[in-house]
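Minutes, project check-in
Item: structure for the 134-residue chain
Input as provided by the requester:
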Amino acid sequence: MTLSIGQLATASDVKVPTIRFYEQIGLLPAPIRAANDRRVYDATAVRRLAFIRHARQLGFSVEAIRNLLDLSDNPERPCGEANALAVHQLEDVEAKIAQLETLRDELRRMVAATCDGRAADCRVIEALALTTET
């Protein structure tokens, strides 16, 4: 099976510019070139892009994905590094969730303190002004 870059984009649900970017930064190997100098990909590229896309959806950094791909390419290596990367990513996600919960609570307080009067008396404006002064 050989695919053009457009077919690869469709098969992997990754946009063409993103595929080119992944090639430039080395996450995706440079493709074989056909006689007409067009990129030609195979099923391995589809699987690799699916791996990258899923890792990005989980929020892994490009460098972490590079390390995970290296582990995937070298299956004889121990998976401790992959576990460590996943633990680090989980910690980052949990920290972001905590930040979002704090934001939600603050927004709820602001919305609960609604005002039907003038902007000068608006609790939302007042709450925002207080947070910028600290």
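Outcome recorded: The mean pLDDT is 90.
No further action items on this chain.
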